[in-house]
Design goal:
Layout: H1 3-21, E1 24-27, H2 29-44, E2 56-60, H3 87-94, E3 98-103, H4 137-144, E4 150-154, H5 161-167, E5 170-173, E6 194-198, H6 201-211, H7 229-235, E7 242-246, H8 256-271, E8 275-279, H9 287-302, H10 323-334, H11 337-350, H12 356-379, E9 382-386, H13 402-406, H14 413-418, E10 421-429, E11 436-443, H15 448-458
Parallel strand pairs: 2-3, 2-4, 7-8, 7-9
Antiparallel strand pairs: 1-3, 4-6, 5-6, 5-10, 9-11, 10-11
Helix pairs in contact: 1-2, 6-7, 7-15, 9-11, 9-12
The chain binds glutamine.
The site of glutamine has 13 residues, from loops.
EC number: 6.3.5.7
Protein name: Glutamyl-tRNA(Gln) amidotransferase subunit A
GO biological process, one term: translation
Length: 459
């Protein structure tokens, strides 16, 4: 089939279902078809094509796209058209990927359900009354609804892996520094990491290898060769691999059917020749608390740039208000409740007199979590856990209860704090509700290939 046929088929699918799913904030029909035609013409002329030529993709609306709106799910960037491409966008274009459009997300990637989007929630294609996870619910829903075969997400505390788990798709948070953050709107810079989303482990690997690798425009980008994730995904051999099961990733709040599928996955790995080792990582119980100080602190600093002067929305600009009032009115109108909550929390945690007690303590816990992982990886090659404590919950159920919402990331946050690599891969449906369950695989920094090896084995 031609790239034009594939692209047209996906655009038709979007037309047929996206009114209900609402995975997309913006569909770039003309741009996608133009790219597809370009690919077909190049192919006809025998010209060299990129490694993912003609494959459609859904891009989270947190990556800048030259000439295409980028809202980050926020009213504050409504109407802003970026003048440049993020490095991820640029690499996708160079790989001859067809970008279908921009996907829905929690505002500024703050959330676990996509309900915090200023543009309305996304439905989970398995049950439209349930959440598709967040913040990258649009990207994962676009895969589960067959609107796109590939997607890109970002993961600060779980926003690639948690949506993957609850939609029955694959999502990978590469090693921190593995994928460039240039042009990815910043939430919490020491945690944010872009990565691939797909329906199979091999598809995720092919996308990973296209977007990853050193970028001089991102000072935290790792200047080392990208691990061979494609070979690992094709290989899938786990014989002799040491797999760690952490006892802190279990207990109160974990759904029975999620634990059942998790235990079966561990059993499967054992049958395939892996050696299973029980571990304890005591600091993991404090990860959520540390994250909810560090991430809001960094966001309070990053979001200061939305001052009504530089980008997007400007409220109260009628000649009767001072510049300071315009900034305040714009932030009042442009930011949603969760964003305001975090900016206030972060500003408080960083203020003089409180800094040591809050931000300082959280950084110490972060170090302890990193050490727990270091000790674990002396004994095992990968750690596995459920990706989420429960399957997809109903839209609205946790919307007014931030603490309940934050619990969705209980298992994913430690890897962001330590900066290592992690994947969610489907491992069956929970017997009690028939909804997808994700297995999380965690590997040391720059050993991303191990995720794909194990993911391919259990897929
Ligand atoms: N749910 C977490 C939060 O709200 C993680 C979000 C993310 O990874 N972007 O911060």
């Amino acid at each position: 089939v031609s790239a034009v046929e594939v692209t047209a088929a996906h655009l038709e699918r979007i037309d047929a279902v996206d009114e209900k799913v609402h995975a997309f904030l913006h569909v770039d029909r003309e741009g996608a078809m133009a790219k597809a035609r370009e690919v077909d013409e190049k192919r006809a002329r025998g010209e060299k094509l990129g490694p993912l030529a003609g494959v459609p993709l859904a891009l989270k609306d947190i990556f800048t796209t030259e000439g295409i709106p980028t809202t980050v799910g926020s009213k504050i960037l409504e109407g802003w058209i970026p003048p440049y491409d993020a490095t991820v966008t640029k690499r996708l274009k160079e790989a001859d990927v067809v970008i279908l459009g921009k996907t829905n997300m929690d505002e500024f990637a703050m959330g676990s359900s996509t309900e915090n989007s200023a543009y309305g929630p996304t439905g989970n294609p398995w049950d439209l009354t349930r959440i598709p996870g967040g913040s990258g619910g649009g990207s994962s829903a676009s895969l589960a609804s067959y609107e796109a075969p590939l997607a890109i997400g970002t993961d600060t505390g779980g926003s690639i892996r948690q949506p993957a788990a609850v939609t029955g798709t694959v999502g990978v948070k590469p090693t921190y520094g593995g994928v460039s953050r240039y042009g990815m709107v910043a939430f919490s810079s020491s945690l944010d990491q872009g990565g691939p989303c797909a329906r199979t482990v091999l598809d995720a690997a092919l996308l990973h290898s296209v977007i990853a690798g050193h970028d001089e425009k991102d000072s935290t980008s790792i200047d080392q060769p990208v691990p061979d994730v494609v070979e690992a995904a094709r290989n899938g051999n786990v014989a002799g691999l040491r797999v760690g099961v952490v006892k802190e990733f279990r207990g109160e709040g974990y759904q029975a059917g999620v634990m059942q599928r998790f235990d079966e996955s561990v059993e499967l790995l054992r049958e395939l020749g892996a050696e299973v080792v029980e571990l304890s990582c005591p600091s993991f119980t404090k990860a959520l608390a540390a994250y909810y100080l560090i991430a809001p602190s960094e966001c309070s600093s990053n979001l200061a740039r939305f001052d009504a002067m530089r980008y997007g929305l400007r409220a109260g600009d009628d000649g009767t208000h001072s510049a300071e009032e315009v900034t305040a009115l714009t932030r009042e109108a442009g930011f949603g409740d969760e964003v305001k909550r975090r900016v206030m929390l972060g500003t408080y945690a960083l203020s003089s007199g409180y800094y040591d007690a809050y931000y300082g303590s959280a950084q110490k816990v972060r170090t302890l979590i990193t050490r727990d992982f270091e000790r674990a990886f002396e004994q095992v090659d990968v750690v596995v856990s459920p990706t989420t404590p429960t399957t997809a919950f109903p839209i609205g159920e946790r919307a007014d209860d931030p603490m309940a919402m934050y619990l969705a990331d209980l298992c994913t946050i430690p890897s962001n704090l330590a900066g290592n690599a992690a994947m969610s891969v489907p491992c069956g449906l929970a017997p009690e509700d028939g909804l997808p369950v994700g297995l999380q695989i965690i590997a040391p920094a720059m050993a991303d290939d191990r995720l794909y090896r194990v993911g391919a084995a259990v897929e």
